[in-house]
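Worked example

This section walks through a single chain of length 222. The input is the sequence exactly as stored; nothing has been trimmed or padded.
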Amino acid sequence: MPSSTVHLLRHGEVYNPAGVLYGRLPDFHLSELGRQMANTVASHFAQRALDGARVVLLAASPLTRAQETAEPSAKVLNLVVRTEPRIIEAENHFEGLKVTPRELLKPKHWPYLVNPLRPSWGEPYEEQAARVLDAARDAARRAAELGGDGAEAILVAHQLPIWMARLKAEGRPLPHDPRKRECTLASLTSLTIDTLTGAVTAVRYTEPAARLLPGAATTPGA
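Given that input, the structure is written out below as tokens.
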């Protein structure tokens, strides 16, 4: 069974002193801590390469924070960062706002809160999972073309779309409590994918930057 591993890498911490839900807004850069996270992940992949891993493909969401997270890994692996629009952050009605209980009480938001299972405030969970898994399958096949059986790819993306892809791959329900997502800043959700059928045969989760998480932003999607 020929396979490739696709590492879904969540971006590092973002500089966001106003605490808004920045979603797909442009020009939200990594914080200094976020840059440390990106460098730590790059060191992780550099060591993997030294140990024999063949990481042959690197792509990132079009958003600034994902591109900046990818840069250190591109340097150590001598790869070009491709842009993959299918792994962009989810659409969200509350983009640009600081989401507080007081804000949610405003009548203008009520139509967007009627169905948390879809969810009604943004891009449907099923659509997020589908687009990320499609991108991962294509990356797995391309990695195999470039590096042969067992080659690896990195896709730098965002918490919610990554979590949706993982839940879908594991056959779990997509509606969830955002506080229980297992997808910290600069974490890796690694999918082993059969390059012939596109089936996800294994899922592994790791936190290369775990030592930098204490004190980092904890807001879902931050």
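What to look for: The chain has five helices and six strands.
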